[in-house]
Amino acid sequence: MDLVSGFEHAAGHDVPGAYAGIVLDHFKVGDLAAYLSGRPEFAYRSQNGVIALLGCDCGEVGCWPLEAQVITTEHSVIWRGFSQIYRRERDYGDFGPFVFERSQYERAVREVVATTPAT
Prior knowledge:
Blueprint: H1 2-11, E1 19-20, H2 32-36, E2 50-56, E3 66-72, E4 76-84, E5 98-101, H3 102-115
């Protein structure tokens, strides 16, 4: 959240950094591992191939989501194409991409899934 907040402040966006983590009790993603891996059938807005990485600071994802594409290659997972659906004019072209080693990303996802109560 700090990275996007800093970016939005520096860019002069209105309502910068008004995000919080995703509350899984309110946002049913289904298979969390598949969602975080960006599998199209589990994407938040599958028609656009994106997931919500952050939700609104009120706890509702649909209120103020920060979205991104998740691209998986043989060796990496990439978050790119960030957008704020309620401020289409915002340019996030200089934010990211964020590249993760695939094995580390998948391990982190497994750890999150293992520690997240089923909803």
